[in-house]
Amino acid sequence: MLKVTIAKNEQEFDVMAAWRIIGQMLKKPDSVIGLSTGATTKNMHAIVSDIYGKYPFDTSQVTLFNVDELTNLPRSYAGCCYTMIAEQIARPLNIPDERFIMPKTISEDYESECRSFQQALEERGGADLQMLGLGYNGHIGINQPGTPFGSETWVSPMDPVFEARVRKETGVPPEHQLGGLTLGIRTIMHTKHIILIAKGEHKAEMVRQMLKGPVTEDIPASVLQLHPSCEFLLDADAGKYVADMAE
Ligand code: GLP
User: Fold this and answer.
1) 162 Cβ closer than 6 Å to some ligand 1 atom
2) How many CA atoms lie within 13 A of 221 on its CB side?
């Protein structure tokens, strides 16, 4: 049985998603939590940080990381996932550098960066919770359509639409050739609990394919149908074709 939760509007969605993150930290103070960047997660990170600012809870043992990162991009660029997560949530929650695990964005050897990133998470017992956004074409992390389900952490080529968006939103100059360092699909599937989050009408058709279509490498997010503990948290717009599946 797939667990589908539909919030009645965007505000309720943001608050529900924020409380999923806070709830995990309260339930297990040494949680390892994977986050995602993007428009979907911005408000929820702000809500988590606001609540912590007002009513601090214990974050001294929490480990945070992001599911993906752009390569060949200095951390000084706003579009760098390290920088977004640091500013939106890791620093506001006083997470020290040693428990904020991110691959380097500039490296001579990205394969070794991938291995160390994955290994650092494995040494901590793997992620307890992974918050996952949904790409416009069904990608998760930066695993684009066609990525083998058996993939481990790797550097994926950027698809042109995603790359154009990153460049537009973050002002990355053309001389920076971008790649997408991402936890692989197999790595993601090893997470104890996953919450797939999607909001907005522009995600509705992809949500339908992810949940009602076949499990296929053409829609990477469809693999989540096979995860033993995955919640699909949607707002009413994103969930309009799957309302019959909601609890
Ligand atoms: C990018 C990120 C993903 C994110 C996705 C959704 O591809 N690499 O991690 O989940 O965008 O972004 P948005 O929430 O802006 O739609």
Assistant:
1) yes
2) 29
- Which CATH number do you get for residue 59? 3.40.50.1360
List the domain range (segments joined by +) for residue 135.
Answer: 3-245
Is residue 3 a contact partner of residue 232, using CB atoms and an 8 Å limit? yes
Q: How many residues does the chain have?
A: 247
Residue 198 is predicted with a pLDDT of 98
How do residues 107-152 score in pLDDT, each as one tens digit?
999 999 999 999 999 999 999 999 999 999 999 999 999 999 999 9
Number of domains in the chain: 1
Query: Does residue 235 line the site of ligand 1, with CB under 6 A?
Result: no
For 148-211, the DSSP string reads -TT--SEEEPPPHHHHHHHHHHH---TTS--EEEE--HHHHHTSSEEEEEE-SGGGHHHHHHHH
